[in-house]
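Dear Dr. H.,

I hope your travels went smoothly. While you were away I took the liberty of generating a structure for the chain from your last submission, since the lab meeting agenda had it listed for discussion. I wanted you to have the full record in hand beforehand rather than looking at slides cold. The sequence, exactly as received, is reproduced here:
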Amino acid sequence: MGREVADIVRRGISSTDPIDLVFVTDEPDGPVQGIPVIRPTDLRPSDKICFAVGSSDDRRTLSVRFSHQPLATIVASTAIVSSSAKIGEGSVLCDYSVINNSALIGRHFQGNSFCQVSHDCIIGDYVTFAPRVSCNGWVHIEDGVFVGAGAVIRNGSPGRHLRIGKGAVIGMGAVVVRDVPAGASVIGVPAR
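The corresponding predicted structure, in token form, is as follows:
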């Protein structure tokens, strides 16, 4: 995932700050595709970081370990974000992702290519959307949820969001038509 995010940064992101792109790891082993690799101790206090790893748990662990560093939010130049949407710190929006009107996205969200979050959705912290996830309007996804590639989440309603509980896993290609309890894993059409 780090190499994919690096490609987004190299192509240009919406930022007024100059960008020195590096990878950070405990045991550096030369550059990766021409990008320097440094140790955590080489980070300057002002360096903004982003955790480009797919695992929600790993992003949570890294956010605790590096809580002293400011966060970068990476939004691909091809992403579309409504002016009324809110994106949490440390989030990554990959190519052609769409965040629609009045959506609220938590910290360290990872939205892969062609994912969509529709109007009035609430997405928690450390949520991962694999490529081509479609989350329709009035959905509330709690912290640490993983949504597999091509999954579709049916819309809720203004009076009642469709809810996906904390730490749930939505399988690849699943079609979610009702609430998913915390910690549950669901697959299929409709998802069960």
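Two observations you may find useful: The radius of gyration is 17 Å. The chain has two helices and 20 strands.

With kind regards,
E. W.
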